[in-house]
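Record type: monomer structure entry
Structure origin: computed from sequence
Chain ID: A
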Amino acid sequence: MSMMPSFLSKSHVLRVLSLEYCGQLVGHQLKCLGKLHQLRYLGLRGTPVAELPSEIMEDLVHLQTLDVKGTELAIIPSTVTKLRKLIRLCLDSSTIMLFEVGKLTFLQELQMGYTSSWSDFATKLGKLTELRKLKVSFTEEDLQSLAEPVSCLQNLQDLHMDLGDVD
């Protein structure tokens, strides 16, 4: 993995990068990803990454998919809202979003687990008018706060609501 930065610095037209299940990958190695301006897909599923450098979000202007399920990522930085073309976001139940999800107006697929405030999240969920696929985990108490916003999602085609973790 120590070769990764020099390799990636020469890959300016790279559109898909799947670093899934790379056991040696650490967060600081991801800083070089900001140079991949044409990147559309970034898959970090199953890696031990605990930090997503916030500065790379400003550079990945064409990113459409960000998959960080199965990582050690505790927080998704608020700079993810700069990813204006993001259409697919996959998170774990333990990953906290430090941004208003309603700002990701092009989002078509959202996979996530529990949130600390479903009523607040549910209000912002209603702003995702392009959402087609939603996978969430929740508790029975949260069901009521989710019902109305989900019913307002006119384009929703696939809804997976689970009382346990979303895979």
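Annotation 1: The beta strands are 16-18, 41-43, 65-67, 75-76, 88-90, 96-97, 109-111, 133-137, 158-162.
Annotation 2: Residues 123 and 149 are 6 Å apart (CA to CA).
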